[in-house]
Predict the structure of Iron ABC transporter permease.
Amino acid sequence: MPETKLYRSPTFCSAVSTPTSPLSIASAPAGTLWWRWGAVSLLVYRAPLLAACGLLAALLMSSLASLTLGSAGLDLLDALKAIFGIGEFMHVFVVQELRLPRLLAGMGTGAAFALAGCLMQTLAGNRLATPGIIGIDNGATAFAVASVVGLGASIAPPAMALSGAVVAMALAFGLSGGIGTRGYRFLVAGIGVGALFGAGTQLMLARVSIDVANNAYPWTVGSLNARDANSVIWLGIAMLIGLPLALWLGRGLNTLRFTDRVATGLGLPVARMRLMILWLSVVMTAAAVAVAGPVGMVALVGPEIARYLSRHKGVPLLASALAGALVMVLADLAGRTLLSPLEVPVGIVMAVVGSPYLLWILLRSPR
């Protein structure tokens, strides 16, 4: 058997095999990078790292395109200067007041939806178990619409969206049989809960005036146009807390993919881990719905792109967040520019793109 020899560099080390090497130091597995700094070391897999770097580069390019393209076209240099308030008044107004807040909202909501989708899919052990499929999106939307149409609720839409997501999660969780339930039973209960909240949303819109219904319309289809600044700020705070927490839960998520007995035997507190994942998914989904409405297809497409690019058996949390942000920004850019001056809401664009993809997942033969 060939022995493993470690070739060191000042920062990174990788494991390679030589057939004639003497006894050598055991090191990082093949396909990984090992970073050491004194007593601190970090082991990362190459494929997920390269996927995250590629997605980050693509997100940067799509963000620049979102700032420059539109009915008022801008040069790249003018758009970059306008971000810092330098240049002509019209350029600064278009970038700082219209396009940059919309871009930040798209990046934040896409990352939150995709991260929640990856967590929920891992929890249920099913690639279709996204917050939109199991009714969390519809629950948050129904409560947000209730605050807009004024049905005795004066709470702001973000807080109401969080309340609706919690109620929907509790119903799906309770109807599916508790925290240990996995698979299609959880999906079926969530679909029923989502349909119930969806019908309630339509009933509320049917009983108010057309002007009030128009104000609530963005929360029913998904839109990034003229988003509330406070909602975007709360979304940013949720992402700053939620993404590191999800990465911290990464090892437990990998273990949770085994059966409950195996995970318990490996020392994982299964019930507590699932409860934490549920709450984190609910908070991420509610924060995103409060900004953009129910754009649940991002939670399905983003993790799938991350898994394909990572080609790794772990849970691609960071890559999922980056892929969701990229998909959301591109969908919003397409909705703004393809049929200009007519604007297509980002939720409709994602439904057109994501629905065939969902059918492909359902109909293709499993490998």
Summary: The chain has a mean pLDDT of 79. Residues 48 and 172 are 32 Å apart (CA to CA). The two ends are 32 Å apart (CA to CA).
